[in-house]
Amino acid sequence: MPSNPTVGRGALLFAALMFGLSIFLGVARRDWREAIFWLAISLFMACYGGLMLNVVPQIHRLLLIVGLLAGGVAFWMALQASFGF
After folding, report:
1. Closest by alpha carbon to 21, among 37, 33, 38?
2. Angle, nearest 10°, between helix axes 5-23 and 32-53?
3. What is the C-alpha separation between 77 and 71, in angstroms, rounded?
4. Cα–Cα distances in Å, from 67 out to 5, 11, 58?
5. Environment class of residue 65 by beta-carbon count within 10 Å: exposed (0-12), middle (13-18) or buried (19+)?
6. Does 81 have pLDDT greater than 80?
7. Which of 10, 11, 39, 45 could cross-link 22 (Cys pair, CB 3.0–4.6 Å)?
């Protein structure tokens, strides 16, 4: 996988901002459902940023699996919020 440091750093910065938002929503507002949603998005973006930065080639598979799971959780929660399942 070709690395792209600019995209990787941007994804990690976005992940850090979304992690801060999830902590704020979870602790300050006690809105746990949205906190889990933003935490899943931040985990997905952190895995994507790690892959783009080509951090440690030995953990690429782990980053792919964790990122896929976190993206799936975020997608499912977005569907639930949109359609009210």
Report:
1. 38
2. 160
3. 10
4. 18, 12, 15
5. exposed
6. yes
7. 39
pLDDT in tens, 8-65: 999 999 999 999 989 988 888 888 888 899 999 999 999 999 999 988 889 999 999 9
Spatial separation of the C-alpha atoms in residues 6 and 11, rounded to whole Å: 9
Does the model's pTM come out above 0.70? yes
Q: Which residues contact 51 (CB under 8 A, 6 or more apart)?
A: 1, 8, 60, 63, 64, 67
The pLDDT score that the predictor gives to residue 1 is 59
